[in-house]
Write a structure and sequence with these properties.
This protein is an alpha/beta fold and about 110 residues long. The protein has a single domain, classed as Alpha-Beta Horseshoe (Leucine-rich repeat, LRR (right-handed beta-alpha superhelix)). It is about 30% helix and about 20% strand. A three-stranded mixed sheet has the order 1-4-6. A three-stranded mixed sheet has the order 2-3-5, with no helix packed on it. A hairpin with a 6-residue loop joins strand 2 and strand 3. This is Leucine-rich repeat-containing N-terminal plant-type domain-containing protein. It holds the Pfam family LRR_1. Keywords: Leucine-rich repeat, Repeat, Signal.
Amino acid sequence: MRLLFFYVFFVWLKASLATNILGNETHVIALLQFKESISNDPYGVLSSWNTSSHFCNWHGITCSIKHQRVQQLSLQQCQLHGTISPYIGNLSFLRTLNLASNSFYGEIPGR
């Protein structure tokens, strides 16, 4: 009985970790693609956006506590120039997008 419990627990843990890793990878890719679409970042606000730290610690990012997914992207008044990457649509938990006082051009990607 004890062996069955540990087996079930291990399978559950493995599935749970895989879901978190895959979900987080999607958010990392979406954010790095967003960064790549920026042609000018005069204040260097996106310099923290790299794989050396968790994306929830990047400038302008607020994540949900439970799922560690991007809920808010706030980069207002950063004087960024570029396009809004269509990858932003992959931030499935995103609730707030604040890009006021920047210079973006092109279409706003939809889901």
